[in-house]
Task: structure prediction
Amino acid sequence: MPTPDFCKNLLDFTALEKDLINDETVDLLEPYLTLEHPKFPADKDGKQTVFNKEIAAKVSSALAGLTVWCKAMSMYQKATKVVKPKMEALNRAKTMLEEANMKLAAAEAQLMEVRALTAELKRQADEANAQKEALQASATATRQKMS
Result:
């Protein structure tokens, strides 16, 4: 007896569980997806596969859709084997970038503090030099008065 929510289950699987398809499942499905027979018409790739959307569509449009879905899940799993390690490497690189950006932000904050301190020390040094020059001028003027 058909399950009334078969389509919903299929869509849920596609959305939520497609990443759980393993190599063994695809290996078991592969002979059916690639089986060729000379009596069948060639598909768009020029192969005379038995598991063919056009042939299935003659029987049922739902079956045609299911053949496309099965092939898509197989292709997705094969692509995932290539992409998944790259995505993991990307996530590791993003984590490293976030850590580096945090260190950079901390270093820039420390640099700002050092620049502020440097500016304050320069201001104090300029003030002290101005005071020194004023005292030297005053001392020179006093010496001239005494002579």
Notes: The two ends are 125 Å apart (CA to CA). The chain has one domain: 6-146. The CA atoms of residues 48 and 117 lie 79 Å apart. The chain has a mean pLDDT of 87.
